[in-house]
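User: Predict structure, ligand glutamic acid.
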Amino acid sequence: MTETRLRFPPSPTGYLHIGGARTALYNWLYTRKTGGKLILRIEDTDTERSTKDSIDGIIEGLNWLGIDWDEGPYFQTDFSDDHRQAAKRLLSEGKAYQCFCSKETLDKKREAALAAKQNVGYDGTCRDLADEEIAEKQNSGLPSVIRFKVPTRQGKLGYNDCVLGRIESSYDEIDDFVIVRSNGSPLYLLCNVVDDIRDRISHVIRGQDHMTNTIKQLLLYEALEAPLPVFAHMPLTLDTKKAKISKRSHGEIVAVQFYRDHGFIPWAFNNFLVLLGWSPGNDQEIFEKQELIETFTLERINKSSSIFNYRKNDPKFFTDPKAIAINEHYLRSMKVEALAPMVKAELIADGLWEDEYETTRQEWFFSTLELIRDRFHTLKDFTTLGRAYFSDEYAVEEKPLKKNVLKHPGLEQWLPELADKYESLAEFSLEETERVAREFAADKDIKPGVIINGMRTVVTGQLAGASMFDILVAIGQEKVVNRLRETPRFYK
Ligand code: GLU
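Assistant: Predicted complex:
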């Protein structure tokens, strides 16, 4: 089998969004599975809408996801000669023609056809102009576009889609489409095929929204006498109301950057993305990288639309709950050595990082991450919910403050008293901290729970978490003593 060559060809007219990232991921997975090459091609021929920011954003997004490529980035505008050359060739071989119809004329005809409920397509006025007519129009300075000449009106054309099976269309449904604008710039349909032919692309994996392009492009491949690539069209991703997801209606929630900025783990996000339009054929949802590369097949890409299940206005579900659930899974179960650098980045960003966490206190750092991650959803939680482990400035949540501290006025004295006992402990261990707390509660004739919950709130600011004595040991004697001693501040 010859080498597989795939491409990801984004148009840089916006950030990398969920749909684009999924396309990139599927192409990447299939490339890695087959040991082929992935080409990154920036389709920047729409110079008015293409921006440098968008190119940077796309590349940044791919880097964050860990989707790497083997060739490129190529820029489509660097290959304008190839595109013009191809258009010239089609013209000279009679497979395309110059069309002098003005926009106004075409619009008028279109309106009339609409009104008469007739076919609104191009009527072929310039399709068979004689050479003299062409020369005459050209000499009089009339602008022209180049149209592809659909070779016949009879019969059907089609291809075998890896996902959808045989796809056909009648020739008479295809208009003579424009391949070069009147200003001489070639259009997407042509550039895209010319580049795919030059780059020897073997598989085109893209969204079903491109299927109308594919049919026209089949004609271009044929006219340019190039073999067809394998096509696999992926389902669209819709929201819960079956509308296409887009920046306009859904905001930044569809941007890959949003997930990076909200503390998602890159691989976890890929794992979420792959399930938006592909399934392994059973109910497995968690795939480590290598396993996914091996399991992924084009045939198992879903035929029907996938749903991006985003519940607006519910802060707990600030994005699709499945994305969060998958992220939690990785966050809570991955090797702590792999998690640590990601937490480090969060701590650095918040000014909470200490170099010792990588040297003398690495053991402490790793065991603390293990201890606290069980209730966390994203990497952000390490600097918010878990802030008390890395800083003395942490928020104390309203709910536990009322329930576990203020409701028990005795704690104002008890916790500072307990602090004294903790201070005098020679060994600040699990057993010792627990023994002292329980004896203290018995002495005061109060339930140990009152002391333990009060301590949790004062020392961590949180309602829930790991076992209290594990927490005390992780935070350390000095800090625990200081924090307990400051309990009266809550009663002021
Ligand atoms: N530039 C096109 C897009 O971003 C590429 C489509 C394709 O051929 O894959 O939609």
